[in-house]
Amino acid sequence: MQVDALAVRLRPRGNMEAADLGVALCQSAARSVFMCYLAIALPVLTLCLAAFEIAAWIPTLAMWMAKPWLDRTVLFALARAAFGQSTTPADLWAAQRHVWWSQLLRTWTLRRLSPWRSLTGPVYQLEGLKGSQLRKRVRQVRSAKTGAATLVTGAFSLVEFCLLFALLSLFGWFAPEGMQVDYTRLFDPEWQQQLQFIVALGYAVAVAVLEPFYVAAGFGMYLNRRVELEAWDIEQEFRRAQPQ
Fold this sequence. Notes:
Shape: elongated
Helix content: over 70%
Distance between the termini: 16 Å
Radius of gyration: 20 Å
Strand content: under 5%
Number of domains: 1
Largest sheet: none
Number of helices: 11
Mean pLDDT: 88
């Protein structure tokens, strides 16, 4: 790891400040991050929505399950942005074996249930460890940080719910005169199916907009954890003060 090549200025930070650092990194590299993320997220989310024809509940569940896998694309772009490198879909395609297909089963199962996956995701994807070394490293990184990482997950889940509710409320706020939503139709089975599709569509928009920032918040906390464990900030300043 070339710590001096990091474009992020490291120093010990509080948990929420570290999460803010990650969000700021995502904002600064938004073009690269969203270009790569939407290139894979939009087809996946569209495929999930198409499953509505099978059962009305499948699209929302499928999108919820796909999140950790979609996060890997975001993390790939963020890791490069941390070193001042932009990322294109071509770069993502060249690294697809590592980004998309590595640890595929666990990404779709066990890690989907992890409330601190934004913090531990970089360990699984970026550090190249396996077996007992990987498990030991994950425990070390998340030690005393699970509460903060879970809080970040909860906060973004709440924001996601609020964004979804706001999107759904647009139908009521901007409906033309005489076409206001008739809430008494909530008990109409046919209208309930339409509503489920609208909810799934709103959820897809929320995932497309918010997920990169959630991953970035966890990545910021991960970088801060490396500062705490390995004094990356001191090494960074030392290497920059004495270039070779």
